[in-house]
Write a structure and sequence with these properties.
The chain is of the alpha+beta class. The chain is 31% helix and 29% strand. The mean pLDDT is 94. Its cofactor is Mg(2+).
């Protein structure tokens, strides 16, 4: 039965139609927010997928260019692979919802969001987040929701919720907060050095809005929700678990995991699995297939008990202690900039490349305000970084997400195009991984940019803290600089990056049903303390400020300003003039609509030559000006001199020499370089020159 529900959300109407479309999905919500329309569906398989030990959830966010009245570019004229924005949106939908499905649920679940129409003032990403939560909540799929999400901006120091397009352009904060009815479950933020207390205020202001949305969703579920279906549960038999614990012993498991060397721990666990396999081959062969899951559970309980009850970390560190840190620059001799940052067994090499503004990334998506990207950060996570063997097939969703997080953290300190007219790309190559490589990438990128001579406004560092919780809200331990094992068996990965002045990026992932305000506040201030230590004690001694010049192998760029009305003169008919300048000098030239001309080349003399040509072209010609030009045509009455690409004037035969000559060829030859003085314009409107009157 078709039902429609509406509420006012941040000054616009949110409408949810249930039963109108996609009736064969387990749950479907036809979402309208303003004029933005998204179809969100939730579907699940009837049976669990065999042979897996995880929950197979996939989230899709499909951008269709018809939603903004565009036809896709290229030959095929059809949407291709998911854009980076679509992948990041899918991840931000997945992260708050995944912890709320049953931990032993093995049925395939797909949450699909089809963007049908976009109102730039009403975010389709937010609409999809709400739609996925509603579609799942009203479906028969087991789910301990609903969740709600709110976007927060800051304009002129004031918080704005679900900001409009104009507000997003002015905002110094881009924050997304997802909540359950009682707790915050996901945080994603980019900010222009927002102080910690202001960020906390924004997070919990969004949480209050989320509570109102959840009340609205609860009404929809009450009227339209289906009973949740039963599912096959995957549990380790208690008699097997008891036998394993008595055979291996908790003390032996603790000894196996209590080491700061990841490889040693893996060898210890491998030996335990081999012992259990040998035991159950004779004792109970049916248990052999369950060993992997059973040992995982045993490890998890052991690690959590050590941390929560014994106040011991697997590598012996204190709860607020960071692993050994190291930083160096100029690792690679001929790149434009390079740096390596090491934290324990996490190591990231970052390389900076500078290019002309023509090399900025063009974006073809649904956001009409963001059509290009001047700073790009890419992140690569090869299998050897964790001691595995796997062919490289390009970046997956995790790599794209980690690269975007580091990029978001650094964008606020990247100099403006006017101050530094370059396209900038940094690439983080993960050489070794054991916890929070994304934050290592931020530190390495900062060092690499400064080594390349990019005048960033401030140094940025990032750190991650973890969490282990007990039975009650006040029984928890926060861990600074979590390693892989603590992330794997813990409850939270809270990543915060920033400068001395404030936060530039946050990403929070959790595996439990939300965090209290107390935990979030303590986690944020713990990262601040660690961030300052990394900035002051590790990064600043390595390189304290950006180099004053770009390196010898980097392109040099100079920028001049011309009258926008003269852009056509510089470009010439069908690009003839500008192409001639490029051909003669070997430089790259970019011209903005405002008349900013960037000249890029590896040779300073070539850049100066090109700039001189451009200045000559855009100069209003006045009598008495002296130019240097080339003889390009000889006639009976005189010679034509090209003094800049596409610009020429005539020297009458009487103005060539102080002595009378019979033929122009007696003095001039095609290709001669001569100095001329401007005499103004002749009767035909041509520029008239003299050679003999040059002083």
């Amino acid at each position: 039965m078709y039902k429609s529900f509406s509420m006012e959300l941040a000054g616009r109407t949110l409408t949810v139609d249930v039963g109108r479309v996609a009736a064969q999905a387990n749950g479907a919500a036809f979402m309208h927010y303003g004029d933005t329309v998204v179809l969100s569906t939730a579907t699940a398989s009837d049976k669990p997928r065999e042979g897996i030990d995880f929950f197979p959830l996939s989230v899709e966010y499909e951008e269709k260019l018809y939603a903004v009245g565009k036809i896709p570019g290229g030959f095929i004229k059809r949407e291709g692979k998911a854009s980076e924005n679509a992948i990041l949106t899918s991840r931000v939908i997945d992260r708050p919802m995944r912890p709320l499905f049953p931990k032993d649920y093995r049925n395939d679940v797909t949450l699909n969001n089809l963007v049908l129409c976009v109102d730039q003032d009403c975010s389709p990403e937010l609409t999809a987040m709400l739609g996925s939560a509603i579609a799942t909540a009203i479906s028969d799929i087991p789910f301990d929701g609903p969740t709600a999400s709110t976007m927060v901006g800051m304009v002129d120091g004031e918080l704005v919720f679900n900001p409009t397009s104009e507000q997003r352009d002015k905002s110094t904060l881009s924050l997304t907060v997802a909540s359950t009815k009682d707790k915050v479950i996901m945080i994603e933020a980019g900010a222009e050095e927002i102080p910690e207390d202001k960020m906390i205020e924004a997070i919990f202001a969004a949480h209050e809005v989320n509570k109102q949305v959840i009340e609205f969703i609860d009404k929809i579920v009450a009227e339209c929700g289906k009973p949740k279906h039963d599912y096959v549960r995957f549990e380790i038999p208690q008699d097997m678990y008891n036998d394993m614990v008595s055979f291996i012993t908790p003390e032996a498991m603790e000894e196996a995991v209590f080491t700061d060397v990841k490889q040693d721990r893996e060898e210890n666990i491998k030996a335990i699995k081999e012992k259990l396999t040998a035991r159950y081959e004779e004792m109970n062969p049916d248990w052999i297939s369950l060993i992997e899951e059973a040992v995982y559970t045993f490890q998890k309980k052991t690690v959590r008990k050590m941390i929560l009850k014994d106040q011991k970390r697997p590598d012996g560190r204190k709860m607020d202690q960071i692993r050994h840190l190291a930083a160096e620059v100029d690792v690679l001799p001929r790149t434009h900039g390079s740096a390596m940052f090491t934290r324990g067994q996490t190591q990231v090499l970052n390389i900076t490349t500078l290019g002309a503004l023509a090399e900025i990334q063009k974006l073809d998506g649904l956001d009409e305000n963001e059509t290009s990207k001047r700073y790009m950060h890419h992140y690569n996570f090869p299998s050897y970084s964790v001691g595995e063997t796997k062919p490289s097939r390009g970046p997956g969703r995790r790599e794209i997400g980690h690269g975007a997080l580091a990029e978001r953290a650094l964008v606020p300190v990247i100099p403006s195009e006017e101050d530094f007219p370059y396209a900038i790309r940094t690439v983080s190559e993960v050489l070794e991984s054991n916890g929070s490589t994304s934050q290592g990438s931020i530190c390495a990128s900062t060092l690499s940019l400064m080594a390349a001579g990019v005048p960033i406004k401030a140094m940025v560092a990032g750190i991650s803290v973890g969490l282990v919780t007990g039975e009650t809200d006040d029984d928890y331990v926060i861990l600074t600089d979590i390693q892989g094992l603590e992330d794997f068996f813990g409850d939270m990965d809270f990543k915060v990056a920033g400068t001395h002045e404030g936060i530039t990026a946050i990403q929070m992932d959790i595996k439990i049903h939300g965090l209290t305000r107390e935990i979030i506040e303590k986690a944020i201030y713990r990262t601040k303390e660690a961030r300052f230590y990394i900035l002051d004690e590790i990064m600043a001694p390595c390189i304290s400020k950006p180099r004053t010049e770009v390196g010898p192998y980097a392109p040099k760029i100079e920028q001049i300003k011309i009258d926008p009305a003269k852009i056509g003169d510089v470009v010439g008919q069908r690009g003839k003039t500008i192409n001639a300048i490029i051909e003669q000098t070997g430089v790259k030239i970019d011209i903005s609509d405002e008349g900013a001309v960037s000249v890029c080349g590896v040779d300073a003399d070539s850049i100066k030559k090109a700039i001189k040509m451009i200045n000559t072209i855009v100069t209003d010609f006045e009598e008495g000006q002296i130019f240097e030009g080339k003889v390009i045509s000889i006639k009976e009455f005189g010679a034509f001199i090209e003094f800049a690409p596409g610009k020429e004037g005539m020297v009458h035969i009487s103005k060539i020499s102080k002595e009378r000559i019979e033929r122009v060829e007696d003095v001039l030859t095609l290709g001669d370089i001569v100095k001329v003085v401007c005499l103004g314009k002749d009767k035909m409107g041509r520029i008239s020159f003299s050679i003999k009157d040059v002083k």
